[in-house]
Specification:
The chain has 495 residues and is α+β, with helices and mostly antiparallel strands. The protein is 41% helix and 17% strand. Strands 8, 9, 10, 13 and 15 form a 5-stranded antiparallel beta sheet that branches. Strand 4 and strand 5 form a beta hairpin. It starts with a helix and ends in a 6-residue tail after the last strand. The relative contact order is 0.11.
């Protein structure tokens, strides 16, 4: 990053954040209410996002939620597909794919995700901030309210905002819980809260956390807690597209001067300096010096993290585009082209270079393509019925009275579908008998586990080694769905 950008007027580098005072106390940012084309687009996107968030728990597939991440029961449903701990390798590949995607996206587009799609930003800026503008007013009114003594107007506004913020936080916490345990189970808890005190306490704890974040912590969640800003710091390069200030066009910056501040040479001026020549007066109104930036700090006033984007790309910038809209409005008012602050890369500003498909981008794209291919293959080849067969621990073999040799096995099954699966087992590579222990009902309930014990009995003539390979076919509705491999332990080799 260019040193001329990150240095302040005194020539020293910025070593603090806007949300912390020099004394180390909390400095609350009161951004001016943004408006403009990009803000309107973000608003519509946020509405879509919130509609999806609050309606998705009610959507069901085969009687089950479309999405559910039940960590406690280790049951996950994504787009109607049921995943169990046995599918952890798929989850691992999916997470690795997501990380590579985030890296590639950040290298190319910077932190656009934070400003447009991050839940923290959407809830903060498009829900709680709008409510704050409605109750407390714009930035100036919020500052006045904070400076007021604790009297009638300030008290009722604070109490009212507190209640509204807490209620919304409680609603958000409930919907997050619905994504964990399903909406049906959540509604069951609501109907009988006394029977689920532990869940209610946990829900209130999460509500308090959400309330704390949106009432007090706010933008510090992005600056102090979220690791993505640090990730951005090591991934961005001069070709990354970010919210950027065109310093070549804007510098040197200076205030607009009025006609009275200029040396007017026309003959129509009076002794008091007032000019009768209106045309000459307005012609004299121009930005001095020649840079397009008039140092109006409109970009700073609307920034939700309190930074000055003219100092270059910074950790606190979440690419919310508020500064773009504010600057475009000022440029329009002084008859200058828009885009002094815009989505751009460092090279596009300094060299006029468009986005290039660099070697790093190519490498990340190749890795991402391979991971996506692997993930798609694993999802396509994923079986509906997961089976794990193990010999009973601590046992070798048993010689039966009729001379046959038997081994005891444990079969664990996981049904990943929305239907019950009846099945049968059959020895495929050897003659023998399968005898079930206990119930012989061979049905795995939908989205459930099942445990089965059975003996495999072989004649001595079938045993060629102390360890014999077995192939056990699993059939459902007359069709083979899986082949299970097993080891059969016997005595010494029989000839």
């Amino acid at each position: 990053m260019d040193e001329t950008i990150v240095q302040d007027k005194k020539g020293s580098f910025r070593d603090s954040v806007a949300t912390i005072t020099k004394e180390g106390s909390r400095n609350f940012i009161n951004p001016k209410k943004p408006k403009g084309r990009l803000y309107n687009l973000r608003t519509w996107f946020s509405i879509f996002y919130l509609v999806v968030f609050f309606t998705l728990p009610f959507i069901k597939v085969y009687g089950e939620p479309l999405f559910m991440l039940n960590v406690l029961d280790r049951k996950f449903i994504i787009f109607g597909m049921v995943f169990w701990p046995q599918d952890f390798f798929i989850f691992g590949i999916a997470m690795l794919t997501f990380v590579v995607f985030v890296v590639l996206f950040t290298v190319v587009f910077g932190r656009i995700f934070c400003g447009w799609a991050c839940p923290q930003t959407i809830f903060m800026e498009m829900v709680f901030r709008k409510i704050e503008y409605w109750i407390d007013g714009d930035a100036a009114q919020q500052k006045q309210l904070r400076a007021m003594p604790w009297a009638g107007k300030k008290i009722w506004k604070r109490v009212f905002k507190f209640i509204v913020f807490f209620v919304i936080s409680f609603i958000i916490a409930n919907f997050f819980l619905a994504y964990l345990i399903s909406m049906d189970q959540l509604l069951g808890y609501v109907q009988n809260p006394g029977g689920h005190i532990g869940t209610l306490i946990a829900l209130l704890i999460f509500t308090t956390v959400f309330f704390f974040v949106y009432w007090w912590f706010r933008e510090q969640a992005c600056i102090v807690v979220c690791p993505y800003g640090r990730l951005q710091g090591v991934l961005l390069d001069k070709n990354s597209i970010v919210v950027a200030y065109d310093r070549l066009r804007g510098e040197p910056r200076g205030k607009l001067k009025k006609a009275a501040d200029h040396d007017c040479k026309c003959v129509d001026c009076k002794e008091d300096g007032a000019c009768k020549n209106i045309a000459a007066k307005f012609e004299a109104i121009k930005p001095l010096p020649q840079g397009d930036c008039i140092d109006c700090v409109a970009c700073v006033r609307v920034c939700p993290t309190g930074i000055d984007i003219r100092n270059g790309t910074q950790l606190e910038c979440v690419n919310c585009t508020a500064c773009i809209d504010a600057c475009d409005a000022i440029m329009t008012s002084i008859d200058k082209p828009k885009g002094l602050i815009r989505y751009a890369s460092e090279n596009s500003i300094t060299k006029g270079v468009k986005l290039k498909f660099t070697a790093m981008i190519k490498a990340y794209t190749a890795v991402l393509s391979l991971l996506l291919s692997l993930l798609i293959f694993l999802l396509v080849s994923r079986t509906d019925l997961d089976a794990r067969l193990m010999r009973t621990a601590g046992m070798t073999y048993t010689t039966l009275p009729d001379g046959r040799i038997s081994n005891l096995y444990n079969l664990k099954l996981a049904n990943k579908t929305h239907e019950d699966i009846p099945f049968t087992l059959k020895l495929e590579n050897i003659n023998g008998e399968i005898e079930y222990v206990g119930s012989s009902e061979m049905v795995v309930k939908k989205e459930d586990y099942s445990h089965l014990q059975f003996f495999i009995k072989l004649n001595k003539s079938e045993i060629k080694s102390w360890k014999t390979e077995l192939q056990i076919g699993m059939y459902a509705n007359g069709e083979k769905i899986k082949t299970i491999m097993a080891k059969f332990i016997g005595p010494e080799i029989y000839n």
